[in-house]
Amino acid sequence: MINLQKFARILKKQREIQGAVDLASLDEIQISLDGKSNPTKIETHDDAEIHQIVAEWMIFANHSVATRIHKKFPSGALLRKHPYPNQQNFEQLKKTAESKG
Fold this sequence. Notes:
- It is a single chain.
- Helix 1 packs across helix 2.
- This protein has one domain (about 1-100).
- The protein is extended and about 50 Å long.
- The longest helix is centred in the middle third of the chain and has 24 residues, at about 50-70.
- It has a two-stranded antiparallel sheet with strand order 1-2.
- By secondary structure, it is an alpha+beta fold.
- It has helices at about 1-15, 50-70, 85-100; strands at about 30-35, 40-45.
């Protein structure tokens, strides 16, 4: 377990250096709604470290498979590249969340 944790941290650091956006660093948000779909409560939930370790290794596995497929079939591989997040959308989400407490 210690080695998995240690290497997961190294993998994460390498991804961050390469410009990865870490959305998992944000706490999970749970929104409670009333019967009319109006938000009544917003709570955050922090993931256990084991979830973060598993997620990091899943990202590593997916990247490794995609790299091998691309090397083997360079003209036929479909790779997904995420666009940079729109900061304006995050600002609006923050304002909405803050207004609800």
